[in-house]
Design a protein that fits this description.
The chain is of the alpha/beta class. The chain folds into three domains: 128 residues; 80 residues, no CATH class; 192 residues, no CATH class. The protein has a seven-stranded mixed sheet with strand order 6-2-1-3-4-5-7, with helices on both faces. Helix 21 links the parallel strand 1 and strand 2. The longest helix is centred in the middle third of the chain and has 30 residues. The chain is elongated. This is EH signature domain-containing protein.
């Protein structure tokens, strides 16, 4: 019998741990290598030049700085001080001094590379330090790149020479992102391919990525599920929430992403799209939570409204899918025949933007089924009662009227003149089936009169006609064609014509 490698036991190697002295020696070598890298190209006594530049800048001796900057090594020391000390750069890097240095200075290639790093690191924040700082530093870097000898290999200097149109203007990252969208290239790949890997986390890199994310979302189809890049965007936004500080307006970048995600006019966003919305902002309906106050309270009312509507549609589809699955699995042919009409009627209300609030009320059995089959959690209350295990109910507030619809033998309950406050109360998380069938209708009857309530038995095609006739007679205006199958609507029109 032949033995294969797959059948052999896994080979484990037990290596002894390094001694502390060995670890310390490698650490020492690593630090020495880092120091050599930092001093590369500086020549002798460069630290002394950096100290002198720092002293002159701190003292405000700009004339002395300009005189000394005729020495290209000293000019590099000045740029290095600014690149290494943001606070000193904020205080001393004035547009006037930058303009004078760009005229009088002599730029080595290393000085140019350092100046590029300074520009990209702070980019859009420069004018917050002092108005005109961005333009002045961009002119200095542009002049340094222009005067640098051209090389065949791609380095930072050559990248800026080739891509000047996006590297030296304030909206350059946005321009770059817009172009990358047309080429289907993400900013990280582009920066790496242009020798700018060291600047992935600079302000230029961050703004370019952010702009690309927003442009990608704007161009994407919210109804498509196969969008792995959306997951990448969501992961980065969520990760940044843990460490990122808010802007002056108290908003994170995630707020802009939420606005972009919810700007889509579709009524049927994909599961992937909804998962992104919920991962960043949480449930838009949960106004009592800290998460809602952090995220949804700081986006536009239109964004919140659309996100809430999407969640209502999610609940509505969960109800319909649950009823359909139950009917098919149990072989309930009568319920199966009603499915198309129920789906058309309820989703038609949603697609006409009439559903202002949707609540699911589920028995334990169907709740577990929906939890297994839905990747996005639904906001559902618990249904109690003797027949409730596999029963699903949905409450829809359409403004001018409300309804309670259910599976099995539950009637369609229509309420006009006011909703059902007990169901609308989100603090109520359990409902007894008897209250839905009897108590709430009786309360509505007492408060609004019997003519403002109707319970309709699901029988044949008559229930949909009875429901629409009742709502019409109470002054509720609906696009009835969108709520019925074509045959049912034609039959309704013929019957009404016969009444006249």
């Amino acid at each position: 019998m032949r033995t294969t490698l797959v059948e052999l036991p896994a080979w484990t190697v037990g290596l002894p741990a390094w001694q502390p002295s060995v670890t310390a020696a490698w650490q020492e070598r690593a630090e020495a290598a880092g120091a050599i890298t930092e001093r590369a190209g500086t020549g002798r006594n460069f630290d002394a030049l950096v100290a002198e530049a720092r002293s002159l800048l701190t003292a405000g001796e700009h004339d002395a700085v300009l005189r000394r900057s005729r020495d290209r090594r000293f000019l590099r020391a000045v740029i290095t001080v600014w690149a290494d000390d943001e606070a000193l750069a904020r205080a001393t890097m004035t547009p006037g001094l930058l303009q004078s240095l760009s005229i009088a200075g002599v730029f080595s290639r290393l000085t140019t590379i350092t100046a590029v790093s300074l520009l990209l690191e702070h980019f859009d924040l420069l004018d917050e330090w002092r108005p005109g700082t961005f333009d002045a530093l961009a002119r200095l870097v542009r002049e340094a790149v222009r005067t640098a000898p051209t090389r065949g290999e791609r380095d930072v200097v050559e990248s800026l020479r080739v891509n000047a149109a996006v590297m030296f203007v304030p909206d350059g990252p946005q321009r770059l992102a817009a172009w990358l969208i047309t080429q289907d290239i993400d900013p990280v790949t582009w920066l790496r391919s242009h020798g700018l890997s060291a600047h992935l986390d600079s302000r230029f890199g961050r703004v370019a990525r952010d702009a690309y994310f927003l442009a990608w979302i704007a161009a994407a189809d919210a109804a498509r599920n196969d969008q792995p890049y959306l997951t990448s965007i969501t992961d980065e936004v969520v990760a940044r929430q843990r460490t990122e500080t808010t802007d002056a307006d108290g908003r994170y970048f995630g707020h802009l992403v939420l606005e972009a995600l919810t700007a889509k006019p579709t009524h049927h966003p994909s599961t992937t799209w909804l998962e992104a919305v919920l991962a960043i902002g949480g449930d838009p309906r949960a106004q009592e939570t800290n998460q809602w106050r952090t995220w949804w309270a700081r986006v536009s009312p239109e964004a919140v409204q659309r996100a809430v509507r999407w969640m209502q549609g999610l609940n509505l589809r969960a109800f319909l899918d649950g009823v359909e699955a139950y009917a098919r699995e149990t072989g309930n042919e009568g319920m199966q025949r009603m499915l198309e009409r129920r789906r058309r009627f309820l989703l038609g209300l949603y697609e006409q933007d009439l559903a202002q609030d949707v609540r699911l009320i589920l028995g334990d059995g169907i709740r577990r089924w929906i939890a297994r089959t839905s990747t996005v959690a639904t906001d559902a209350a618990v249904l109690r009662g003797s027949i409730s295990g596999d029963t699903a109910m949905v409450y829809i507030d359409c403004g001018s009227f409300s309804l309670v619809e259910g599976s099995h033998n539950f009637k369609l309950h229509l309420y006009v003149g006011g909703g059902v406050p007990a169901i609308e109360d989100r603090s109520a998380t359990e409902f007894d089936v008897a209250y839905l069938r009897e108590v709430y209708p009786e309360r509505h009857f007492r408060n609004h009169g019997g003519h403002m309530y109707l319970a309709v038995t699901h029988q044949g095609t008559e229930w949909i006609r009875t429901a629409l006739d009742f709502l019409r007679s109470r002054g509720v205006v609906l696009d009835e064609r969108a709520l019925m199958t074509p045959n049912d609507y034609a039959d309704l029109a013929r019957r009404r014509a016969g009444w006249r």
